[in-house]
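Predict structure. Input: DUF1015 domain-containing protein, 437 residues.
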Amino acid sequence: MRRVGICPPQVLLPEKQIDLSKWAVIACDQYTSQQDYWDKAADIVGGAPSALNLIFPEIYLERPDAAQRIERIHQAMASYLENGVLAAPRQGFIYIERQTAHAPLRRGLLAMIDLEKYDYNKGSTSPVRATEGTILSRIPPRQAVRRGAALELPHVMLLIDDPEHRVIEPLAAHKHELEVAYDTDLMLGGGHVTGFWVEGEEAYGRLADALEGLWQDIAAKCPEAPVLYAVGDGNHSLATAKACYEELKKALGEAALAHPARWAMVEINNVHDEGLTFGPINRVLFHTQPQERLAGLLARAKALGWQPDLTALAPEELWPAVCAADAAGEQALGVVADGVCGLIRLGNPGHPLEVGAIQQLLDETLQDGESLDYVHGIETTLTMGMQQGNMSFLLPAMDKHALFPAIEQAGALPRKTFSMGEADEKRFYLECRRITA
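Output follows.
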């Protein structure tokens, strides 16, 4: 299996008596401006054992009690390992079926990825490739959580470009032969998830052969920089795992190659899975002067020669107008700023994607006291943009079939270019793995 960069993890799951609907919690990088979501999650969990006690929701990253929160996380990990919350480890892949309010079925495979085959730096030609530019300043706060952690809980989702459905989909045809690993509803509209154990050398060999065949096909089409796995979700979390592993290599030398931290547990998904959709990641600017900022952004775009044109629209007209412009091959994005709602068309765009254009403008003009967040969902983006002191930007969705060609040809995309589904479709923490020797 290692020749294709994966191997079966030693999976730790909660003991049978643990309520998985309280245990499983959404990825930490979701709802980063929606405190009420995390408050509701905490209310649901109460005092029950939960992955909520083992993760650091990013909404709290800038809080003054960050160090104390990390200490509590590490203590909870030790407690769960010592006090019978987690069952004995079991080695195997897990075939995953996820149902959400937006898709009846999405298939995945829980595996470990070799961090020796991953490089998030610009210009990388590694088999495991970042899909977006990595913000190096985001890694140290996440390293503080991972350092000293006994456990890893995965929310990273890797994509493969498998149009013939050779790798993951055959497992679905034989799932009735597989033992169920877990089966639970997910909190706060997360839908349902079922996992099935995929074990044994015969099963491992079939997966390895399928991935090897896929890799050979990809290398034949793109010999200079083939990509086998592209990071769909959790780019900075995987980059943090890599950074921590590189630290370990400096400390341990060759011994680090056999350390559990060489690997990161991930879910692998086929970009051609019908249940996998790409949505936009919108922008919301907080603590700003919306009307002045809108005028300033339009002026800057004009100075860059992008020929911006703003057309006023009613809020309910905005998203259809963005979609219509995208379908017509125009570059356009929606904006909501203190009662002004409209479509900005770029007649001579300076970037091949709208997300690159608006991100460049925001990066160039971000002012002291302002903060920028990345938000899923049309209604959420509109609502936040209408609040006093905020402005928001609606972006079109990227065609998922264009992802791998774009990475192979141009490298990493602008950060937060696409979302794999809506916020409530993101991966939930459920499985664990030891990352200490």
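The mean pLDDT is 94.
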